[in-house]
Amino acid sequence: MRIASFLHNGRSSYGIVIDDHVLDAEHVLGSTYPDLKSVLGAPLGLSDLKTVSGAPRIPLTDIQWLPPIPNPDKVLCVGLNYSRHIEETGREVPKHPTLFTRFASAQVGHEQPLIRPQASKAFDFEGELAVVIGRGGRHIQAQHALDHVAGYSLFNDGSIRDWQRHTLQFTAGKNFVGSGSFGPWIVTRDEIPDVDKLTLITRLNGDEVQRSGIDDLLFKIGDLIAYISTFTELLPGDVIATGTPGGVGAFREPPLWMQEGDIVEVEIAGIGTLINRVTDEG
Question: Is the pTM of this model over 0.85?
Fold first, then answer.
C-alpha cells in the first residue's frame, strides 16, 4: 500500500495512492485520524485505511504533495553510513552511528521546489532511503526492530555544505527551510519483504550521480533503530533517513552543486521516485 499526505483545494489530507489517483481517506476517517501520523499511531490505523475503497478519488494532477508525515516528532538523519561515502570524505569508519536532526520545515514534498538559500551556493544532493516508524518504543532490540517500521520512503538530505562545516555540528547546514525533500509516499513494510535487496539511484538533470545497494549500509536499519531507541523514545511517524551513498557533489572535482532550475531525482525501484526542481530563495 502506498500512503501519502497532500493538499487538495487548500485542504490538508491523506490517502492511498492507486495508479493515477489517490483515495481521500481523510474525508472518511478524519474525525478519528486527523492526519497520517495518527493513523500510524493507532493499533488499527492501517487496517482502517484499507476500508476506504468508497472514498472520493482525486487525480494526482489535482493535488500538491506534502511530505508523507508533515508533522513528525523527529527526523533523525544518519551520516557516514555507506562505505564509498566514508571513503570519499577521507574520514575513519565510525564506531557508532553519526546522527543529526532535521526540522520539519527543512523538508518539502514530491514535485515541490527545493530552495537554494541566498546565504550559500554550495547546495548538495544526498539521495537516501527513509524509514518511517509505525510502532514506537524504547530499548528496541535490533532483531525485532523491523516490527516497529510502518514503511519506507525516499529522502533528499539537501545540504548547505559551507554552513555544515562551520562547526563540528551539522545542524545549520542541514536545516535551511525547504532545502530537503521527503516522499512521494510511504510504501508499507509488507510490500517490501527484503529492503536490503533494493538499489538507490540519484540523478541530477537526468545524469546518474549516485548508485548503491541498500545492503551497503554500515549500520543496518535494525541497528539504527536499536541505537536511537536507547537514548530517545521513537514515536509513530518518526523518520530515520539512513544515509547517502558516495558520489555527492562536495567531493567531486570540481564540486557539483545544485543550481536554480536543476531537476534532482531519488529513485528506489519498489518504492518510487522523488522529484524536485531547485529554485533560488526569494
Answer: yes
Would 70 be classed as within a structural domain? no
Q: What are phi and psi of 234, to 5 degrees?
A: -80, 140
Q: Which residues contact 71 (CB under 8 A, 6 or more apart)?
A: 35, 37, 104, 237
Digits of tens for pLDDT over the chain (282 positions)?
Answer: 999 999 999 999 999 999 999 999 999 999 999 999 999 999 988 999 989 999 999 999 999 999 999 999 999 999 999 988 998 998 899 999 999 999 999 999 999 999 999 999 999 999 999 999 999 999 999 999 999 999 999 999 999 999 999 998 999 999 999 999 999 999 999 999 999 999 999 999 999 999 999 999 999 999 999 999 999 999 999 999 999 999 999 999 999 999 999 999 999 999 999 999 999 998
Q: Which of 26, 41, 65 is the last residue of a domain?
A: 65
Is 134 in the same domain as 23? no
- 52 in any annotated domain: yes
Same domain assignment for residues 79 and 200:
yes
Angle ∠(211,159,74) on CA atoms, nearest 5: 95
Do 46 and 154 belong together in one domain? no
